[in-house]
Amino acid sequence: MKKIALLLVVALVICGTAMAGGGRDQAGADGTVRLRFGNVTPDSAVFAGEEFVRLAHEYSGGTLIIEHFPRNQLGNDLPMVENTIVGDLDISVSSTSSIAELYRDLYLFDAPFLFLDHQQAFRRMDGSVGQRILSGMESIGLKGLALWENGFRNFTNNRVPVRVPGDVQGFVVRTMDNEVHLAAWRAFGANPTPMAFGELFTALQQGTVDAQENPLGIIDANNFQSVQRHVSLTQHVYTPFIVVMNLRRYNALSPAHRSALDRAMAEATRLQREESIRLEGVILEKFARENINVVHLTAAEKEAWQRIVIENQILDRVKARMANPGLADEMMRY
Ligand code: TK8
Q1: Overall fold of domain 2-150+240-278
Q2: 95 lines ligand 1 (CB under 6 A)
Q3: Rounded to an integer, what distance in angstroms lies between the CA atom of residue 100 and that of residue 18?
Q4: Atom of ligand 1 nearest to the CA of 213
Q5: Contact assessment for residue 98 and residue 180, using Cβ atoms and an 8 Å cutoff
Q6: What is the CATH number of domain 152-238+279-319?
Q7: For residue 188, with 0-12 CB atoms within 10 Å meaning exposed, 13-18 middle and 19 or more buried, which class applies?
């Protein structure tokens, strides 16, 4: 698996290099640059995507024209990023977990309970470790533009109000295709099964899987609550969104276009994070109105999950997968 993934990256980078040589003209005769941008499903990301497009247009005096494809209409996260590496797509957004095998320091974000609240998450993502991981994306042909909030992931199912790991014994839980998530759910006693995001709604609806885990923004944007009765606020892991751009395409932008794009992305990132937090409150109110059973865990119940993560040395598994495991300890210092 790992070897295949690595070969794939190498192949994609070589292919991307070849394509960039004879690729599209950077700017049209009228000085405009057109970019295609594939985005994810939560409303906070869609809103920030629209702002990014609008601001980039404004800051470039109307010469940066970005076409926005929200809500994974161009495909699941991993294929979108692969298309960005080869240059078929210019900019894309993905959960870090879905592409960790392409750039293995991203596994750091899969460590359960690495961040305990939003502010700590922002501080750590924006600190030197987060920024080094972003710039490291260049080694696979991507410009790391930003880390957005996906949010703390929560457990949903149709059977029982889950509070502690003991409640999920034997549950077939869909996870992302990510070894750290699989290991964590096995340690909790569940039967995790990786599945592409695009297949998840139907799998929940038909009962092929008992449960899944995602942040509130994704649960709501994809209406998982219509097929899942219980939403447990386990907040077991915070997996950010990473926004990436084809590196050659980015480097070929004029300095003025690059600065317009960077400024627009910085502003969009600020708005996205604010909106993500605001919407979590709105979504919880909506779930209450819809009679979804939202299970708030006590501190002791949360600790029961954390204890299993520690006992099963999940952080060591994370580090074993990272190219620079020292980044894990360094991030935990601030
Ligand atoms: C959506 C994904 C996704 C991820 C997953 O774009 O697969 O569970 O959380 O929802 O980024």
Answers
A1: D-Maltodextrin-Binding Protein; domain 2 (3.40.190)
A2: yes
A3: 24
A4: 8
A5: no
A6: 3.40.190.170
A7: buried
* Rg of the chain taking only CA atoms, in angstroms: 20
Contact 230, 168 (CB under 8 A): no
- Helix, strand, coil percentages (3-state) for the chain, rounded to 5, are 55, 15, 30
pLDDT for 19 equals: 46
pLDDT digits (tens, 9 = 90+) for 187-201: 999 999 999 999 999
How many CB atoms sit inside 10 A of residue 218's CB?
A: 23
Report whether 38 contacts 91 (CB < 8 A): yes
Residue in 180, 333, 301 with CA at minimum distance from that of residue 234: 301
For the chain, what percent of residues have pLDDT higher than 90? Answer: 90
Q: In this structure, how many other beta carbons lie within 10 angstroms of the beta carbon of residue 258?
A: 16
pLDDT digits (tens, 9 = 90+) for 111-154: 999 999 999 999 999 999 999 999 999 999 999 999 999 999 99
User: Does the model's pTM come out above 0.85?
Assistant: yes
Residue with tokens 């000085």: 31
66-104 confidence digits (pLDDT tens)? 999 999 999 999 999 999 999 999 999 999 999 999 999
Strands 142-148 and 241-246: antiparallel
Is 218 near ligand 1, meaning CB less than 6 Å away?
Answer: yes
> How many CB atoms sit inside 10 A of residue 82's CB?
20
Same fold, 2-150+240-278 and 152-238+279-319: yes
Distance 257 CA to ligand 1 centre (A): 30
**Ligand 1 atom closest to Cα of 95?**
11
Domain range summary for the chain, segments of one domain joined by +: 2-150+240-278, 152-238+279-319
